Amino acid sequence: MKAFLSPTRLFMLGFALLLAANIIVLLGVAANRSGKPEAVIELTERELRLPYKTNDENSGLALQLKWRIIRDSEDGISYYGNWGSPTWFNAQKLAELGFTIDESTCPRTNSKREKVPLPKDVFIVFEYNGNAYQEALQRAEESLKKAEAALRARGKDEEAQNRFKEAKERLESEYTMASRLFAIDAGLDAGKLRERYDDRSKYIIVSGIVRLECRSDKNKKIVVGHISDIRVDKINVPLRYRSMFDVILSQDKSERRERSGPRYKVEVAYGSRFEPWIRRVDKLIK
Amino acid sequence: MKSKGIKQTAPASKIDAQRRADQIRSFQAELELIEHEKIISLNKRQRTAITAYHKKLLAQLSDFFDVDISKREKQLSLGLKIASFLGALGLAASVFFLFYQFWGRFSVGVQVCILIASPIMGLVVTMIAARREPTGYFSKLFGMVAFACFVLNLFMLGQIFNITPSYNAFLAWGAFAFILAYASDTRLLLAAGIICFACFLSAAAGTWYGIYWIYFGERPENFLLPAVVSFLLPYFIPHKKFSGFDVIFRVFGMLLFFIPVLILANWGMISYLNLNNATVEVIYQISGFVFSAAAIWLGIRKNWSDVINTGNAFFVLFLYTKFYDWWWDVMPKYLFFLVIGLTAILVMLILKRLRKTGMNKVQETAK
């Protein structure tokens, strides 16, 4: 023991550990990026946003993946990120993902045995510019029609005017800047999901975390699924693609104005370990 | 950590050597007092023999363990320890911010090279410092910086290549912290190693139950196994050669045990136990009292002051948490704090009684 713990041996062991850890990490990166990518998708500023605030003490830059869900809502809004539960994420889907759903899962009254449910690691399918986006557009259009009708009926009512203005802006945003990337399904087997969603330029499969939630609905509790997070939601921008983003960031600093459309598009590849990287960046406006 | 040259009752670690040096100083002061009071008087030969023996012993202890021989040296050493700790924190933070400040301006290849080279350089500097400077203050400082560089290394590789976070990083960080701690005899790195390993084991245990590892804290019971391992490790593998390592293992073992128990004693809904939440809370409240009392008993029995103090702190914490649950809403505040004060007096009386019993036993043994 004494000889084994001699400082010289320990330092040598330290060197070996440093090298081994770095080799394992870099081999993992190489494995992810080797061969044919799992998916290659072209996203725009609408789905990959620059940080709201840049930090002078961090010269790195990462693009944030913006994704949405279609949920049951009376206001017609298709929410961003993990706000609410997607319409497809019901008790049956939760059971498919390995959650135990029985009578005790969401009891009618507050049970003393109720536990905080544990999150699970699953694969989530995101659809780019597909049916889910069309539904979001349709909802925004209907919402505007309703607001317009209410405005006509109630005349110069301030609330009706505000609602009309909001609905109009929302529809405009759906056409110009809102993300078209929607979470549409989840599963435990990435292979099976890929068979079902085989267009690799339209559907991406990523690793994410989901939870079971109990919601109150008309005096009863229902079980719904909730996407807590996706495991890699920021994509690092390598130096060779930085110059264009630096120009945009400096413009943003000097003038704050409403954007009428995305300013760049990014080709993102997802590898065998479902980890993304940037393959190409193009400017969209003059 | 050389110890050749000190033949009789050779101290195993720097802490033991310092204790021996303090003992010699106390003996010299007491002898002077006894002679002044004319209780005994040593002849010249005896005095010379003792003085020569102590002088030689102190010189050897100073040579091999760099112990503080005078009060002034001790004060300066404390200053050095504080400066070394602050220096390590400052340099580690500086490495982080330095990299963050400039990494975006480098190509991926350069970023990777810097990230891999920095902990290697940190390790080389630690190794050189450990060989050149026997006091170990600089090797401890550079060891901390090397550890920070390695944390930065894996963390930033994750960011650069958009890698899915993995709890295996804790295993690598923990192993590196342990290696550096044992190589440079640094308790702070040992503590970092214990925390990293506890996170790794807890995340692994959580994953076996189907939790995504980042959420392992949502079931505090995941920490109980690492806590037991940390507490029992120095019992089975003695660490006499290292300064205060057994204390760090025991204290962190207790923290990793009692903090989850304290949380579960108040929030039964985050337990693995498939029981009524109130029952779970009662189980953990009782466990908290029983195990903290057992820790005090064990500490007294084994003469482990660290275990006694930690056990005491948690026993009082469990007691006050219960008082809060029972009485905060129903009692006027002056009465609530009066009860707290009276309980503290009761604890003092019990401890005083225990102390008196202990002293009586010592006196009886002396007779």
Number of strands of chain A: 10
The major β-sheet of chain A equals: 4 strands, antiparallel
Low-confidence stretches of chain A: none
Terminal CA distance of chain B:
40 Å
Mean of residue pLDDT of chain A? 85
Q: Which pair of protein chains has the largest interface, and what are the residue counts? A: A-B, 50 and 57 residues
Helix count from the secondary structure assignment of chain B: 12
- Mean pLDDT of chain B equals 85
Task: Explain what this protein looks like in three dimensions.
- The complex is a heterodimer of chains A (286) and B (367).
- With 286 residues, chain A is α+β, with helices and mostly antiparallel strands.
- Chain A folds into two domains: 7-128 and 181-283, no CATH class; 131-179.
- Chain A is built from six helices and ten strands, in the order H-E-E-E-H-E-H-H-E-H-E-E-E-H-E-E.
- Chain A has helices at 7-33, 91-96, 131-154, 158-176, 190-196, 242-254; strands at residues 39-44, 48-49, 62-65, 120-128, 181-187, 203-217, 220-230, 234-236, 264-270, 276-283.
- In chain A, a hairpin with a 2-residue loop joins strand 6 (203-217) and strand 7 (220-230).
- Chain B is an all-alpha fold and 367 residues long.
- Chain B has a domain at 14-64.
- Chain B has helices at residues 14-36, 44-65, 71-102, 108-132, 137-160, 168-184, 187-208, 224-236, 245-264, 277-302, 305-327, 333-366.
- The two termini of chain B are 40 Å apart.
- Residues 1-5 of chain B have low confidence and may be disordered.
- The interface between A and B is large, with 50 and 57 residues.
Structure, briefly:
Chain A is an alpha+beta fold and 286 residues long. Chain A has helices at residues 7-33, 91-96, 131-154, 158-176, 190-196, 242-254; strands spanning 39-44, 48-49, 62-65, 120-128, 181-187, 203-217, 220-230, 234-236, 264-270, 276-283.
